[in-house]
Structure formats: C-alpha cells, structure tokens
Amino acid sequence: MIVVHRARLGAPLLALASLLVIAWAALVAPAAQLRRLADEPGERVLVELGDVRAARALARLRPGTTGAANDPGPALALARAELGLARRLGDPRHLGYAEAALAPWSRPDGPSEAKLLGAVIAQARHDFTGAAQLLDELLAQRPDDVEALTTRAAVALVVGELDVVARCCTQLAALAASPHDVACEAQRLSRRGEHGRAAELLESAYAAARRPTERAQLASLRAEVAFWSGDDVRAEQAAREALGWDPADRYTRALLADLWLERGELLRVRSLLEGHTADDALLLRDALAARGLGEAMAEPLFAGLAAREAQNRQRGDLSHGREALRLALARGDTGPRLVALARANFASQREPWDARLLAAVAEREGDAEALAAARAWLRDTGFESPRLRLASGATP
Amino acid sequence: MRRALVLLFVLLSATTARAHRPSDAYVLLAQDATAAHLEGHVDVALRDLEQALALDDGDGLLRARELQARASEIVRFVSRSVGIAVDGHALPARWAEPSLVEHSDGVYARVPVAAELPPGARALGLHYRLLADMDPSHRGVVRFTHGTRAELVVTGAGLAGPAFALGAAEGRSQLLSRLWEGGQHILAGLDHVLFLACLALACLRVPGQTGAALVRAIVAVISAFTLAHSLTLAAVALGLLRVASYVIEPAIAASVALSALLNLVSPASSRHGHAALAFSLGLLHGCGFAAGFADLGLRGGALVEALLGFNVGIELGQLLVLLCVLPVGLALLRRPQAFAVCVRGGSFAVLILSLGWLVQRLNLE
C-alpha cells in the first residue's frame, strides 16, 4: 500500500518536474524561427548595425567610383576605407565591398595600388596563393614598394616560406624603411627560435617610433615574440601597450586572451573581451573562459560558433581553419575528421599556433604521421618555444 | 540568478546577434509531390538589405518599423535579383510579403515564393544576381527538394547558376519513408530504447501477476509513453513549442538514470506507477524526438502527414524493442533468482551508462 501511495504521489511530482524542465527549455530556446514582419512590434531592434555613420559615409563615396572611367582615385580611396572598417570591425562583408570598389581596376594593367589592396583582401580571406601572386606582379613592376614588401613578407611568414621572408627583409633594410625593416627581421628571427634577438630589435624600434600606428604594430609584435618565448610578464605588458595604442587590434586582443586562458585568469579574459564578441575568433576565447568558469551561457555560445562554422564550410569558406580546429577540440571532437582538419589547416598556414594545434591533435589521436609533420616543421624552421614542446604534450 | 542571466543573454542575442560572417542568402525551392507546384523562399540578411537599400534612419539600430515601411521594396529587390527559369524560359512566380527568420548570425528577411510548373517541365534553373555588384563575395546557398531528394548548390558572382533536374509526380505517399525514419530514430536513440526497456523490466517485476495482467501493464506503459511523447513532439513540430536541446538532452539522460535507479532501489511496485512514470518522462522524450524530426524541414500538409508517419514509426520501433526484451524477461521469470540478478545487473549497467550521458551532455568532462 505504501508503495502504491508513494507511486501515486511521485508520478504527479515527476510530471510537474518534466513540465518545469520543458518550460525552462522553452524559455531559453532561441527566438521563434519564423515571425511575420507585419506582426513585429515596430520599435523592436532587429539588428545593431554598429558604426552606421562610417558605412553611410562610404556609401556616399560609392556612386563616384563607378563614373570615373579614367581616375581610379575614388575607387581606391573607398576600397582603403572599407578595408579599414573590415579590420576594425572584423566584419568580412567589408572585404566584399572593398573588392566591389576595386573590381573595375583589378586587371593586369590596372594601377599598382589596386593590386596591393587586392592582395590585402586575399590575405584577409586566407587566400595566400592569390595574395602572393598579386604582390609578386606588383613587385616585378615596383621592387621598392615598401607596403608591398611588408605585405609579401607577412604572407610568406604565414605559409612558412622563410627564404621569401628573408629576401623581403633584406630589401626593406636596403631601403632603410624603418620600422618595417626591423619588424620584418624580428619576425624572421623569432620564427627561427631567436626570440631574444627579435625582442631586442623590437624594443629599440618601439622606443624610437613616434607614430601611434607604428607603436601599436611594434608593441603587438613584441607581445607575440614574448608569448612564444614564454615571457608572460613581458607579453602581457606589450599586449596592453599595443591595445592602448590601438584598441581595435583584434589580433593582439586574441593573443592576450590566449595568454590569460592558459594561465587560468578567466575573469580577466571575460572582461577583456566584453563588447568585442561580434568577432567569432574572440567569441571563441570568451566561450572557453565562460566554460572554465562554469557559466551556463558557454554552451549556447559554442553552439552558435559551431552553427556559423558549419555555414562557413557550406559556402566553401575554409579560411578560419585555426579557430575551427580550436572549436572542434573544445567541443570534444575526435577521430579522423579532427586530424584531417588539423592537417588541412597546417597545409594552408604554418605558423606556431598551427603547428601547436597539429601536434595537440596528433598526440591526442595518436597520429604518428601528423606528429612527424609538426616535428619536421620545428626542425626545419628552428623554432623553439616552451609553448610548443612535443614530448611533454602540447595543449591547445 | 544564473538562469535569469542566461535567459536575458539568449533573448538579447536572439534579437540583435552581431556575429560577423561573410554574406550569404539562403534559397529553398521545393517541388511538391504532384510535381506541378514549386514553392520556397529566399532568406536575405537584414544587414545586406540595409547595405543595398539603406533602410535605417541613421541611428545604427535597424527596427521592425523601418522594414515594415519598405516591405514591398524589399520584395521587389529580392524578386528582381533571383529569377527562376524552367527549361530555359523565365517562370512567372508569385512573391509574398516577407517574414523574419533567425539564422546563426542574426535576423534575415524571408521572402516566400511560389510558382506553377508547366506540365513536362524538366530543368529548373536560377538566375542569381543578388548583391552581385555590391559584394562579389556574397554567396547564395540554394537548396532544391523533391520528396526525399535534396540538393544543395552554392552560387554567386563568377559561379555557375544552379540547375536542378525536376522530379516526376510521386505515386506513393511519403508516409512509408516517414515510418522508416521514425522507427530508425528510436532504434538509433539508445537512450529512448533503454528507458523503455527499464520500464518493461519494472512491469515484469510485479510479483504473482497473471499473463493478462502483465500484458495490460505493458500496454498501459507503452500507451502512456506514446501519448506523452506524441503531445510534445506534435507541439514542437507544429511550432507551438520551441525548446533548447542543451536543456532537454541532459534531462532525457537523467530520466533514463531515474528509471534504472527505481528498478534498483524500489520494491516491485504497482503498474499504475509505471504508466504515470512513462507519461511524465515521455513528455521529455517527445521533445528529444522533435529534434530528429525538425531535421527533415517540412511544413503544411506534408508536415502533418509526416508527423503521423514519424510517430507511428516510433511506435513500431518501440514494439520491436519490447519484442526483444519481453521474451527474455518472461523466460527468466521462471527462475526468480536469475531474474533478480538480470534486472539488477541490467538496471545497474543502464544507470552507469545514462549517468555517463548526463555528464557528457552537461559537458562536465
């Protein structure tokens, strides 16, 4: 009898609990997928457009760019402005707008600046082959173009063509193109494992630099060199300086977030990234910190990242291989797909982070071939870092 | 407090998500079973519409009224940029008032389109020029469906326009394939299977019952489970209820653990309790089934038919499970000691497994 009573009392409670769980699940479910526009409350904000004034100012430039058949000036100015917005906001749509502005001038006999900007767009989309091709064309015409040499070195550094980097650095040094020559050489040295010499060069160039953009750039490089040399104190200090000069530098913000993530300073990561999470690369770091803190909102963040990553893949955009890989690791993916992702990423870009992720995946999955590829990269470049030690287990 | 924060966050992110992605539009063209009718939609990001049509009044916040005021212009813009052709000739299409729809990177305007296909139509083509001069990196992700066939083509500036082979009228109904999908779903979903198996074992444990009583008890459990999960599955499938799977999935794991735990700790209890238990927790499982169902992406009359088929498929899958569990249980009933060991051992194994799922689904690893 007692059992029966208990069952009769327990069942309604359970039903209530189920309904409560469903109610909770309904409350936190994404908003209704489909709503009639006509039924929507008029004042509801559907999209925060961000810096709409900047976008509108550019839109006003647009009509002028198509009419001028002989003057590429307005189109180039518009493309530069769109690229600036793309960099500042991390919004790839502006790369497309820049490409559209350049379109009438993107031809073999077009102005050299159109080639340069086209290369910058390609680089931003991780089309390193396309970027290198445009820059080589440009440099064949204008071997002393400092911006082209700097960009060419950056592209070569990403794909691991250190001989090309060295050639660009030599050329920049011959042109006495300060501080680009120093920045180039320091990155080359650091990639060969000579972090100490790289840091010295950057410190003195930073002290000598006067323009804020140069200081921002040099401070960011100092932070990166210090990060890989394992000097966390200096890395943090330099990253903060870089962000002081240029708060829109998403690259350095990501670097500082990584540093703090690895040190377990998760609350600092969250406050560092507050207001910067429209960029999925930064949102990924934010989600990792939120999960580390046990915050319930971490999982929807990961789900959103995965959904967007799937849509990127669907459109054939594989440019975010590094972030896709970190996301896959964070979501506990395993097996051949993960290894394939790591190898594909390492095939397209070969920087310390890529080697580190390849090694992490290889060790986790016991893939000797992938591990050998990471080892070979270390051997060939001479790169050394306490953050990339294969024997002791590289953690992403 | 944390729940409240999560809720606030989700509500905020759902309305004004600002995640940056390259510009994509999503086109669906579905040919119905009679093969005479084409319907679908084009989803364009509001951000792209703003860039093309300058909808915002300048405060940087795109509000519903700013779209409502220019709804017909939006429809015109989309219909001029997406041309449907059949066998090389432009197909007159009816474009309707836009709705709003969420994608992973924010709100999109969905412009529905419908058209009648001429008899004997073979090839469906799409002249896609959306945003081509504004953003050459824009892509149209075009899905064509006919029955269970679905094709996906990505198009855009410099890429070939999508072309699909139109299908012939389907003689048989979709019911059979939905039955199959429902059955597969329950058989592939080990959590649902084990939940049912635990409840069936619980029925077997009631001492001294006749065969008829046992059958009645099991039928009661199955009916209760079916009724409950049909309710929530239908509610979700018909769009009356939306649930977050990261809440439902751990709860389903917990329900399996609970059903196993009850077999371990409670004495053999009445059948009344089992049916009530099956109903209570079946509500959760229905929400779980709905996720599998939503992947099929159906609507209208096809949805109701499919829902029916899917549900019946689930029932058949359940019966199959019981047909496997019951004979073993009945055979063991004659040896009470062996039966007790099997129930306890089996329930313990299910408990461990389901707790593992719970940890995994809560991401506590």
What does this structure look like?
The complex is a heterodimer of chains A (396) and B (365). Chain A is an all-alpha fold and 396 residues long. Chain A is built from 20 helices and two strands. Chain A has helices at residues 2-27, 52-67, 73-89, 93-102, 112-124, 128-141, 146-159, 162-174, 180-191, 195-208, 212-229, 232-245, 250-263, 266-273, 280-292, 298-314, 321-330, 336-348, 352-365, 368-381, and strands at residues 34-36, 45-48. Chain A starts with a helix and ends in a 15-residue tail after the last helix. Mean pLDDT of chain A is 89; it is low at 1-7 and 392-396. Chain B contains eleven helices and twelve strands. Chain B is elongated and about 80 Å long. The model of chain B is unreliable at 1-17 (pLDDT under 50). The chains are: A mainly alpha (396), B alpha+beta (365). At the A-B interface, helix 1, strand 1, strand 2, helix 2 and helix 4 of A face helix 1, helix 2, strand 3, helix 3 and strand 7 of B. Strand 1 of chain A pairs antiparallel with strand 7 of chain B, so a sheet runs across the interface.
Keywords:
heterodimer, A: 396 residues, mainly alpha, 2 strands, disordered C terminus, B: 365 residues, alpha+beta, seven-stranded mixed beta sheet, four-stranded antiparallel beta sheet, 11 helices
In short:
Chain A is mainly α. Chain A has 20 helices and 2 strands.
Tell me the number of helical segments of chain B per DSSP (H or I, 4 or more residues long): 11
Number of strands of chain B: 12
Gyration radius of chain B, in Å: 26 Å
Biggest protein-protein interface?
A-B, 82 and 89 residues
- Catalogue the unreliable spans of chain B: 1-17
Order of helices and strands of chain A: HEEHHHHHHHHHHHHHHHHHHH
